[in-house]
Amino acid sequence: MDSYSITYTPVIAATFLGIGFISLTLLIANLLAPRVRTRGKESIYECGSPTIGQGWSQMNLRYYLYAILFLIFEIESVFLFPWTVVYKGLGPFAFWEMMLFMSMLLFGLVYAWRKGVLTWE
Amino acid sequence: MDGLFGLDGATWDIILAVITALIKAFVIVNGLLLAFAYMTLTERKVLGRMQARFGPNRVGPFGLLQPIADGIKLAFKEDVTPRQANFWVHMVAPMMALIPALIIFAVIPLGPEMRILGQPWTWYVAKINVGYLYATAIASVGVYGLVLAGWASNSKYALLGGLRASAQVISYELAQGLAAMTALVLAGSLNLYEIVNQQVSSGLPYALYLPFGLIAFVIYVIAGVAETNRSPFDMAEAEGELGAGFHTEYSGFKWSMFFMAEYVNMINISALATVLFLGGWWPIPTDAPGFIQGLGPIVFLIKIGAFMFMFIWLRATFPRLRFDRLMSLGWKVLLPIALVNLLLTSAVVALWPLGVWPFAQ
Fold first, then answer.
1. Is-contact B17 A10, C-beta < 8 A?
2. Residues of A in contact with B75 (CB under 8 A)
3. How many domains does chain A have?
4. Which of A43, A46, B21, B131 has the most neighbouring CB atoms within 10 Å?
5. Inter-CA distances, B99 with A64, B28, B80, B91, B144, Å
6. What CATH number did the domain enclosing A106 receive?
7. Which among A30, A55, A61 has the least Cβ separation from residue B156?
8. Which residues of B fall within a CB distance of 8 Å from A34?
């Protein structure tokens, strides 16, 4: 086996251990806990009164524009992470190029800001 | 080991690596859960003292057995799933919140590589080249737990809490990532062990790389508090508005799993901030004689402890933010500052190699 697998084997082993450990604990807790089903106990909490309509109600989601902006900046991060690693060896050209890229994104943020996307009306 | 049971040396290497990793991961998972238990006690004690009360002091000496009593009580609590909830998602959601929190710690280097009784010993489970990326990626999986919990409960409060949690976490993830990149540019590596090692060998934790390192450090910590849904950013579980937010419909052990996830995430954020900005086991040199190297993990844990105290202190001090102000802080203050800070840092790194920056010392 190459060194690559040796490096990542512990990560996979730890992941499986985490999943196994938590599943087992949940199982044990389920065996210990009492279970008495009554109608009132199993209803949804809404300040003591019966739920009006469905729990999955429609609501005005103000966050979806934030989510779109988030995607843009998250993709920027995808480009930035490898850049940070090799940056020292690349010289001034890498700096100016990333400067260009980031100022475009910064411009995008300023545009969204001016358009009122980030304001809660 | 060669030729044992007809397996070659390379296969044995893998098997040994897996066994070592499993033992270390088991110790870490249990250590984290123990730390969680006593963190709850510490929090109640410290909050009590800050409000001129005693906090729990009845169960055992100084209330030291309180977490154990709480744990036993929670294990014997009835675990209610609402009739209209989606059963499987309702059950998987707390696991999705807790498991990522527990396995992030595998890549945190607690101390320098050393030899104990002549055998090589490492204070981490895995040393991978994309250490920081792994930590953030796994941490992002954790937010699915909150969102799914909010959705699966089929409750209005829970749904709103889950949506708030997701909006908040994705907003602060950006500022946090950009702040961390300041440290990554200075280190030129994503490997957490390498990042610490560079700070230790240059004798300069990146938080002291003035002024950029300090700005990035402060942004990282603020964003970290928001990422873990801690007060004053605990909008997702604002009890005055949303009942209990995304875990309104949870009880018993599943409910406690959300709390474990929150506290373990606090420990993870503290550990990552220590690695990125406080230089891990700095000022213990990496290549010191064995005994002094052994102090490395202790120094690391003291730094984590200081962060945990800060989390409690913040909770005792600040009132909760309004949600739109919370989003404004993330998008209009922290994100632009972090971005400009990163640009300036990279300019400085290009012009002055690390350590020559005139204001650094």
1. yes
2. 28-29, 32-33
3. 1
4. B131
5. 28, 13, 22, 13, 12
6. 1.20.58.1610
7. A55
8. 76, 78
Q: Is A58 on the interface with B (CB under 8 A)?
A: no
In a domain, A99, yes or no: yes
- Report how far residue B121's alpha carbon sits from residue B127's, in angstroms, rounded to the nearest whole number: 13
Range of the domain at A66: 3-51+59-114
**What pLDDT digit, counting tens, does each position of A54-105 carry?**
767 777 667 778 888 888 888 888 888 888 888 887 777 888 888 888 888 8
Angstrom distance (rounded) from CA B231 to CA B225 = 8
Q: At what angle do helices B335-351 and B212-227 cross, to 10 degrees?
A: 150
Size of interface A-B (CB pairs under 8 A): 217
Chain A interface, mutation test: which of B171, B194, B260, B265, most A Cβ atoms within 10 Å?
Answer: B171
Closest CA in chain A for residue B140: A74
Q: Is the ipTM of this complex over 0.95?
A: no
pLDDT band for B304, please (50, 70, 90 cuts): very high
Instruction: Give the integer Cα–Cα distance in Å for B135 and A80.
Output: 16
How many angstroms separate the CA of residue B339 from the nearest CA in chain A?
8
Residue at A121 is within a domain: no
Domain annotation covers residue A120: no
User: What gap in Å lies between CA B8 and CA B15, rounded to an integer?
Assistant: 11
Average pLDDT, chain B: 87
Contact at CB, B163 and A61, closer than 8 angstroms: yes
Query: Of A64, A65, A85, which to mutate for an interface test with B (greatest number of B Cβ within 10 Å)?
Result: A85
Instruction: Tell me which chain B residue has its CA closest to the CA of residue A14.
Output: B25
